[in-house]
């Protein structure tokens, strides 16, 4: 037994809890589904024009943009503390709509710290998460809706899609050191597209240009 115990590495001692260092309004944050805003945090807004290059049907994108530049999604986030073991989280709201047959979507990203995973909690609406393994390109379309939780593994590009008729509201919780890397998706986009076919969401391979 002692042999076994000797082979167990001692658990790493976490740094002292920085409770006193965390602002009171970072310990408790109120939100409403209507505003989809975390407390008084600023909202990062993305409009249609910001999504240039994301949608598969470029002609439909340009046609839609000529009609206006609607807000597609916004995100507010809380970053209570940095450092090993700490968490950040963000609340997103993605509007319903389509460009051609493709549902409204977020830009999508990898984490700058590639091993960092993330938890998405569906709070309102109906949508999905497009997951793509960075190394293999393996893709999954996972439902994201009220009363559901989606696990995004590390090393996985992820994009949110609204497949419903109402705003999709969700909470994303991630390690404080995750960071956001948008460059690979901006350069290569996802290998698959989420379109509506016969009234249902479907994952189809992106057509090569
Ligand atoms: Fe993320």
Automatic annotation (TrEMBL):
The keyword Isomerase applies. One of its GO terms (biological process) is gluconeogenesis. Pathway: Carbohydrate degradation; glycolysis; D-glyceraldehyde 3-phosphate and glycerone phosphate from D-glucose: step 2/4. Keywords: Gluconeogenesis, Glycolysis, Isomerase, Metal-binding. CDD domains: cupin_PGI. Its EC number is 5.3.1.9. Residues 46-200 form the Glucose-6-phosphate isomerase prokaryote domain. It comes from the Bacteria. It catalyses: alpha-D-glucose 6-phosphate = beta-D-fructose 6-phosphate. Belongs to the archaeal-type GPI family. This is glucose-6-phosphate isomerase. It comes from Termitidicoccus mucosus.
């Amino acid at each position: 037994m002692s042999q076994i115990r000797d082979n167990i590495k001692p658990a790493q001692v976490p740094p002292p809890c920085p409770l006193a260092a965390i602002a009171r309004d970072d310990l408790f944050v109120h939100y409403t589904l209507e505003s989809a805003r975390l407390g008084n945090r600023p909202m990062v807004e993305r409009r249609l024009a910001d999504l240039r290059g994301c949608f598969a049907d470029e002609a439909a994108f340009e046609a839609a943009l000529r009609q206006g530049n609607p807000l597609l999604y916004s995100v507010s986030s809380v970053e209570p503390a940095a450092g090993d073991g700490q968490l950040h989280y963000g609340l997103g709201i993605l509007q319903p709509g389509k460009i051609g047959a493709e549902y409204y979507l977020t830009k999508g990203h990898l984490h700058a710290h590639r091993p960092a995973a993330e938890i998405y909690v569906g709070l309102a609406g109906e949508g999905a998460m497009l997951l793509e393994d960075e190394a293999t390109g393996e893709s999954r379309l996972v439902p994201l809706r009220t009363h559901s939780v989606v696990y995004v593994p590390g090393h996985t590009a992820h994009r949110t899609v609204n497949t419903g008729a109402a705003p999709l509201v969700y909470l994303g919780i991630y390690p404080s050191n995750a960071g956001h890397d948008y460059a690979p998706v901006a350069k290569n986009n996802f290998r698959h597209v989420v379109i509506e076919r016969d009234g249902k969401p479907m994952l189809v391979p992106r057509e090569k240009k």
